[in-house]
Amino acid sequence: MSASPAPGFRYIGKKRRTKEDPRFVTGRGRYVADIALPGMKHVALVASPHAAARIKAIHTEKAQAMPGVRYVLTGAELCAAVEPLLPGVDAPKVVRYPLAYQVVRYAGEWVAAVVADSRALAEDAAEKIEVDYEPTAYVLDPEKSIQPDAPLVHPAHGSNVLYRRKFVWGPVEEDFARAEQKLALRVRWSRSATVPIETFGVAAHWDPNQKLLDVWASIQMPKYPDQTARALRLPGNAVRVHYDVDVGGSYGVKRGIKHTVLVGYLAKKLGFPVRFIEDRLENMRGGDMHGPDRIFDLQVAFDEDGTICSLKIRALDDVGAYAGRSPLQLGKPVGAIVGPYQIHSVEYEPISVMTNKTAQEAVRGFGQSPTNYAIETAIDRVARYLRMDRIELRKKNLIRKDQFPYRIPSGTAYDSGDYHTVLDKALAAADYPTLLAARDAARAAGLLAGIGIATCLEPSGGNTSFEPLFNAKNDTTTWMDSCLVRVDLSGAITGVMNTSSSGQGHETLVATVLGEVLERDPDTIRVVHADSLNALPSNSPVGSRMAIMLGGAAAGAAHKIKAALLAIAAHNLKKEIAELEYREGNVSVKGDAGKTLSWAQLVEIAHRKYHLLPPGLEPGLQAKFVWEVPGGGAMPTADGRIQMYPCFSFEAHVVLLEIDPGTGQPKLLRYACGHDCGVMINPDIVHGMTLGGIAHGIGAALYEKFAFSANGQLESQSFMDYLIPSALEVPPISIADHCTPSPLTTFGQKGSGEAGYLGAPAAIACAVNDALAPTGVSIAELPMTPLQIWKLLQTVTKGPDLKSSTP
Amino acid sequence: MTEKLYPVSIEVNGTLREAQVSARLTLVDFLRDTLFLTGTHTGCEHGICGACSVLLDGEPVRSCLMYAVQADGRRVTTIEGLAKPDGTPDALQDAFCEAHGLQCGYCTPGMIVAAHALLEANPTPADDEIREAIGGNLCRCTGYQQIVDAIKLAAERRSGSAR
Amino acid sequence: MKAAPFEYARPATLTEACELLAAHGPDAKLIAGGQSLVPMMAMRLARPAWLIDISRLVELQRIAAPDALPAAADGHFVVGAGVRQCVMEREALAHASLPLLARALRFVGHVQTRNRGTIGGSIVHGDVSAEIALVACVLDAILELRDTSGATEVPAREFFLAPMVTSIAPEQCLVEIRFPVWRGAGKAVTHGYAFDEVSVRHGDFALVSACAQVELDADGRCVRAELGLGGAAPVPLALPEIGAQLAGTRLDAQSISAAAGAAADSSDPESDLHASADYRRHLARVLVARVLHAAKAEAISKIEAAK
Fold first, then answer.
1. Closest Cα partner for A761 from A672, A683, A701, A675?
2. What is the ipTM, given to two decimal places?
3. d(CA A406, CA C292)
4. B47 and C203: CB-CB below 8 Å?
5. pLDDT tens-digit readout, C67-78
6. How many domains are contained in chain B?
7. Per the CB < 8 Å rule, is C8 touching B6?
8. What is the pTM of this model?
């Protein structure tokens, strides 16, 4: 893999082993299921078999009599004692509780909880609970759900629409009128999710004397302690979330707030620690962690020379029976709604609709990957229509490197980029001429073969601008993050981060940044996680924000430490700061190396020698840094323009794919990805996440779907039917790096936690359609399984026309 | 009415461990909850994800698909048993660190167990043999590539060949 | 996902195992590798009151290659029901005498599952797409079942009744599988073998599988052929009539195409989440053609190599 060298850095950009890996490879991670609390009891759940029903009665006597059972909880009790969980849009009647209250709204919704001495005993008792249901009407099809006669998932809300708005940015109708051509298309992104190998789990313990709820959870969620406290009717400082729990993957979904409210309530009521670890069935059906489930209807206006003039996008998203932040996943893509292209105007109509299915939650990219899939499919259709090379069409429309910062019609400015170069690097990494030859040779041999190209953005720096955009009553504009740094009496450095991690290497990130600024070896720097009582404010690793926000905060705190050291030195060497030189923690007078105060000496003065401390400087050596997302802090305009995220990483995928014409099975043969996330702080970490993101995208493109039967049962509820790619489904991948530093961040870094996933489904769909092109059919729905491809091939009425495909 | 308990005597990481267990206690739950060896993880409990992989008499198996009683008298090696006696990584585990063949670490113990067994049987595996050997271990973080790199690196180091 | 409670026994002999089965009847299940049974128990789809562990019974571990009989007779390769799949993978004799089974084993699950799963367990479980069961049917293997009253022989082709349903009685234990080995009965013949399947991911249950074993004379004419389909009917489907029609042909493209079409017509597949019945029927035709071509090519290449 090529890597752009990071200019002039000591540690940033260099290969470095992570701090986290050693504990994981020796089996010494500390995940929530590893934490044994004395006297801890276990939870199992009873789930609804019906897509919609009234609960007439719940008979718990037999369960209560089972061995080892401590308590049986139903919605009637719980829902009176806790505050409901609300969606991220203005829909106060769409309430969610951890257990169903009076009605169930999807098959798999949790109805009762058993607490017992072991999980096995809890399951034995859960089987004995009998629930009398009266099934009611339900709706599963989002296009039916928005009709006025559809059964209502939440009747009190008055409709099944959670959010709907038509944004018009720029002269869309004029651009469509004057454009030489138009195309309309529909694409469908089916429901999938990140499905981490570790399910969600939470353990809680209530101390009645301190009136404190300790919580350990596999969590990746902004405002988690706050929402837990609110729901349990506790003040914020009565909940202590331990962020040092290792999280076994999340990629967005681990927002187990309903699980936490359930377990917190039980712990508080029952007086002993309670733990709930989802089993895989509970996770898939009832964990409320499904991803976007979207139908896009697009119209593209373009000229004969390939200039894309305007776009209209209608995005209908099925969030299921309840919603947390999920409707907002239609909002984040506003910040990259034209992709990497110079498109003059856009109309965007997001519609968030409910059906009687498992609830949707935040998934890696927060809606950007489905949107990129839709945009890229439209671009390919234009290329096919014009018989224009797909690469040439893209190059014509891509924003040029001299145009940055580039403001798109919806109000966001892209900070920096050089999309043409990254695309060229990807093509070179793929050895594009050889790829073409291989494709054509495969076609000549009777196979279906195609090359896919996708050029996509990864917005990064995770801001919450979609909140006020989608809900005028919600004027949240702060989305800060933070870091605290201590240098102790021995001169050792400790960094404190204020949220959980799930494999992104944050400890390594912070140590590297602190080492860079303070010019001290990152291997000697320890990074720990605070808990929510002693943490500085953070908003979690979401929206690819930590390299920017946590990295920036660590740098900010380190600079304060450095400033303090310089102040101490200036005071003791009796010089102005401008006359001093800082090197590796030691401070000397410029040009007079004999006049030096070493790191150790400076630390001693700070901690022990108050009489040598400059007046006004606080004793000790510590600093905190809390800051807002760059470019954030504003409310949207009346027509919905806003700076969504600050920094824009970019990826170009080039894929060679074959389809076995006899069986319809697709096979990825070559995969190259050009990637620009600005300055990479740790290349191995960044590459790892990009490779994992591509694998995740392969899953969404070819294998994964939460499929529901006609009566609302989740058919793919275990790993037997929900098919996650193994090492045999993911090909070797070449990554070609490029670096356009961000002008907005400390070192020029951009985020990269969602890399790969945001472009892979688009690229693979493009490749499949290129493979199918000689037959005249195309596919516009994910996942593209062998069955789907075969069904499509059956509609072909003529033999393949090898000459009819575009280059 | 409590469940009947059965005596088991299993050698785990070189030490004989004896306990009274219910028949339905899986081997993975025995390792984690009875012996507090929490390095082995559960991801599905129905035999697909591979996170629970351990060595049974030196061969990788899914410990969620065995009951502890079935392992009576057998020899089990977990991820904890692969590290050096002082708890620091062995050559294979170190190669995973060098190549960053992991991120969240949840699938990693099972992955390393499978890799260990592969290298014992096949010290110089080709890439496709590596992927076949870990084909029953799902990972959501890495896309497998840096895992394959780690195993290749370990193979090179164990066989002493130049990189 | 914890199993419902059960009691456990690990009898020391097959006789004891049968006695326990007789005593507990349908409330008891035998367990060897557990790769199919334990997931079902975890989901509480199976809840036996008794698990009888036969994984260490020596009587179920026999592997015996065909005797050194006169070349005129075909022998049988005997595989104990408790022999683990990984053992058969590694067993050189098995590769030599039962190449079709060796090919099939590559598609069975993953390393971990083959380290525990047994040849017999896969057969008794009765999954319509199980590779080992298909090979047993196609090769017309004989199954030996035992209970307290003695031994019974059942042809594999009569053993499978419906998805997950075999003719084994609750008190019976599968002891051995006797696979016929084609040795050519003294004629100058070569053999070709092929197993193929379509699954969504590597190692998944097959949507459809197919296998073929052919015997060609020195002129490349087919002397005998056996083929079959898995996942395309309520049971593994051996197709001896279609195989008989291939005898005498040169396994030319037309004969193979006709056989593949006949095989697809014989199939009776289900629709599920991953494949429709029509798709399975189509795959049946495609895969039968492919395995016949591949088996023929292997046999022809041996003829060429011998020249």
1. A701
2. 0.97
3. 61
4. no
5. 655 554 568 999
6. 2
7. yes
8. 0.97
